[in-house]
Design a protein that fits this description.
The protein is mainly α. It has two domains: about 25-110, Winged helix-like DNA-binding domain superfamily/Winged helix DNA-binding domain (Arc Repressor Mutant, subunit A, Orthogonal Bundle), CATH 1.10.10; about 135-169. About 60% of the residues lie in helices and about 10% in strands. It has six helices and two strands; from the N terminus they run H-H-H-H-E-E-H-H. A hairpin with a 2-residue loop joins strand 1 (about 85-90) and strand 2 (about 90-100). It is globular, with a radius of gyration of 20 Å. The mean pLDDT is about 85.
Length: about 170
C-alpha cells in the first residue's frame, strides 16, 4: 500500500480541481441548446442520469440534500422536462426517476463542450517542440494524453468515493 500524498500536493490538487471546475461549471455559461439548471438541479440531474430508476429517497441520500431541497429541485427538473417520475413497478407508493430525451440531449451538448474545452486547453498548454512551436496533440502525444486523462479520472473518482463515505470521527 502506498503512503498518502503530502499535504501541500493534496492542497494543490484541490486548488486545481476548483479552478478547472469553475471554468467548466454548467450553471455559468448559458446557451439556447442546454437547459439552464441551478447548482442543486445539476447535482440531482447528475445522480438521476447516472442512476436511472433511482428513487427520491435514494437521490436525497446520495446527494446529501434535505428532502425539502430535493423536492424543489425535482419539481423544477420535471417542469423543465429533464426528469420523468414514474410509479415503481413493485410498489405504486414509490416513484422512480428517469432522465428524459431532452436531458440526454442537453447533457450530450454539455459534455461535448466540456470535451472541446479541455481538448483546446490541453493543446494550448502542450509542450513546445524543438523549433519553438507547440505540439498539435496529434498521433504520438494522443496515447500519452489519453493515459494521463484516464489516470486523472481514476484518481479523482477515488477521491470522490472517499469523500462520500461516512467519516469515523
Amino acid at each position: 500500500m502506498t503512503s498518502p500524498a503530502p499535504d501541500d500536493a493534496l492542497a494543490q490538487l484541490a486548488d486545481v480541481v476548483l479552478r478547472v471546475a469553475r471554468e467548466l461549471d454548467p450553471s455559468v455559461r448559458r446557451s439556447d441548446d442546454v437547459v439552464p439548471l441551478t447548482g442543486t438541479e445539476v447535482l440531482v440531474m447528475r445522480w438521476v442520469e447516472t442512476n436511472p430508476g433511482t428513487t427520491p429517497s435514494a437521490t436525497a441520500e446520495a446527494t446529501a440534500l434535505r428532502r425539502s431541497n430535493l423536492s424543489v429541485a425535482l419539481g423544477a427538473l420535471v417542469a423543465k422536462g429533464m426528469v420523468e417520475r414514474r410509479p415503481h413497478p413493485g410498489d405504486a407508493r414509490l416513484a422512480q426517476l428517469f432522465p428524459t430525451a431532452l436531458a440526454a440531449e442537453s447533457i450530450g451538448v454539455l459534455k461535448a463542450r466540456w470535451a472541446g474545452t479541455l481538448r483546446a486547453a490541453l493543446r494550448s498548454g502542450a509542450p513546445e517542440t524543438g523549433d519553438g512551436t507547440a505540439t498539435d496533440g496529434a498521433a504520438g502525444e494522443s496515447a500519452e494524453v489519453t493515459a494521463a486523462v484516464t489516470a486523472a479520472v481514476a484518481l479523482l473518482g477515488r477521491v470522490e468515493a472517499g469523500l462520500r463515505r461516512p467519516r469515523a470521527d
